[in-house]
Amino acid sequence: MQTRLSTEFQGTPEGEQADRVLRSCVHCGFCNATCPTYRVTGNELDGPRGRIYLMKQVFEGQAPTRTTQQHLDRCIGCRHCESTCPSGVQYHELLAVGQSAVDAVVQRPWGERLRRWALRTVLPSRAFGPLLSLGRAVRPLLPRALARQVPQAAPLKPPAWPSGHQNMHARRVLMPLGCVQPHLRPHIDAATARVLDAVGIRAVTARGAGCCGALKGHLGDVEGARQQARANIDAWWPFIRSNTPVEAILINASGCGAWVKDYVSLLEADPVYADKARRVVSLLKDPAEMLPQWMPRLQHALRQRPAALGAVTFHPPCSFSHVLKLSQTNQPGPVETHLRALGFDVKLAKCDSHQCCGAGGAFSILQPGLSEPLRQAKVAALNETGAPVIASANIGCITHLQAAMDKPVKHWIELLDEAISQRTAPP
Asked: What are the domain boundaries of the chain?
């Protein structure tokens, strides 16, 4: 694609990034075939190719409008288009600078500004936990539309983390806890630590670390996302540079892992943090990537368990598939393969198992009209498998799907913990 940047963007990092991505696009339109929002609306401007045209116009000097802003807002950020694109267009890099350029010119309605400010400010903060507890307490009194946005608490307490005297393993991994998962589903972190303990690895956490920055980044506050990335790197660095460094940074929420993977591009112009970001990303692991090396210990731990551990349908999140590249369309990836080897009857949805469920971080809150049809289609496909449990790999997908399903939706690592400990975990 030929581009002619306007004067205001020439020689700027944003302009150079936009120019690089735009020139790689050949207008083939393959991206639209897998775009979830294009499937819902059928509008060319609600697909990647149409949004690329809109952003090209902005970077070439055409004034953006409220309509431009709305079409960019409707991108769920699943990055399925990038998996489909034969030219390797890094659409998410263009969207990041394109949305910022549009938001700098087009003012949002006050109610929309308030919602977006609350999402990027409150959710990653310490106030989220108390506010969530309050919301759960008054949930029966809330209007139905608002009540649906407040996740119900799990009926049972999460399992205990391995105690200090039990968990003195020489091998260590750093396990960031993030911002919303400890409040929405603390069972996942506890289960991860317990599985690590079972395979001879100690999970350590870092004070001062917090949100990965995805919420701010996806909502237009790129500089705020950079600040959170720097704070996390500062908190993690002592564990990386110690005399006994951690062997990995294990992030069990694939959405957060996908964002941390982008720390390199996010901080590439920062002379203090660029090299540190590359080191962090080199250590980044999703639990699924470590499953192969855990298998001997897991098989030993499960040797006296029943051969069949039950049926489960695995839902690979978009971040898991299209960013971390840990699953392929309608084919078993590391989670499915290794859970089957351990005795689980793992099923995949008959439809495109990688089609988005509609969660998209804050997307389900900001764009419910687009999110709900995607969720309904995904729930129907998951229910068709007949498995009594749904497993996924990202807190956003788990929470989003659970609100529309009667059967439990869990992180796949919870299933391993249950099998090892022979206990009944909360739905």
From this structure: 7-103, 171-287, 304-421
Structural contact between residues 313 and 390, judged by C-beta atoms closer than 8 angstroms:
yes
- By three-state DSSP, how is residue 34 classified? helix
What single letter denotes the amino acid at residue 227? Q
Q: What is the pLDDT of residues 124-140, one digit of tens each?
A: 878 888 878 887 888 77
Residue-wise pLDDT tens digits, 15-47: 999 999 999 999 898 999 999 999 999 999 999
Q: Given the DSSP bridges, would you call strands 284-285 and 201-204 parallel, antiparallel or unpaired?
A: unpaired
Residue 329 confidence class, pLDDT cut points 50, 70, 90? low
Cα–Cα distance, 427 to 299 (Å, whole number): 25
Contact 251, 285 (CB under 8 A): yes
Rounded Cα distance, 243 and 108, in Å: 50
Strand partners, 410: 391
Q: Can you tell me whether residue 272 is helix, strand or coil? A: coil
Give the distance from CA 29 to its chain's centroid: 25
Instruction: Give the architecture-level CATH label for domain 304-421.
Output: 3-Layer(aba) Sandwich (3.40)
